[in-house]
Write a structure and sequence with these properties.
Largest sheet: 7 strands, antiparallel
Helix content: 25-40%
Order of helices and strands: HHHHHEEEEEEEH
Oligomer: single chain
Radius of gyration: 17 Å
CATH architecture of the largest domain: Sandwich
Structural class: alpha+beta
CATH topology of the largest domain: Jelly Rolls
Strand content: 25-35%
Distance between the termini: 24 Å
Number of strands: 7
Mean pLDDT: 78
Shape: globular
CATH class of the largest domain: Mainly Beta
CATH superfamily of the largest domain: Jelly Rolls
Amino acid sequence: MKEALAVNLRRVRTERGLTIHALARLSGVARATLLALEAGTANPTLETMMSIAEALGVQSAVLLASESPPLRLVRANDDGVLREDYGVVRILDQIQDIAVLGVLEAQIFAGCEFPRAARGDQPGTFSFIYVLSGRVLIGPVAAPVELGPGDYFRLRLDEPYVLRAVDGEARFFSGLCSTRPDGLRAVMPRRRQHR
């Protein structure tokens, strides 16, 4: 993941005619972090990836894509893990030929909620959740449902929703599919602030 990100980030930034300093200003990501990412020596958080992609006007999948054959094998110890305050997300695959599709393995910590859920600002985007362990409260704010191991749920992300662990941490597989051709400008219209 680090190598593909380094190459793609440098390529897209250059294509856009942006310096590292300009990208740092647009994305809200520290210049030092961008330099480390382009050098292939750092792993970004999910929020950092999304901020950079938004500033560049591309899907995050574009920054992580690598020239690869149609078959894909991901071993248990392969890279691709993003650690956040609310949990851990492991990117398993991303496809962008027809629509943008991301396949993730996720873990939400007890007492934490997915930070973007309350915004519901992802038009043309759906999420698919399959619970592996623990219990998850998920769904539209007005009518969330509780899921346990083996349960599956699909929801739209264009309205506020709930996604949090119930009584401890929860692990699940998630798919994210966006049919929007205009990338992150439509999916994430608001700029995030970074710590």
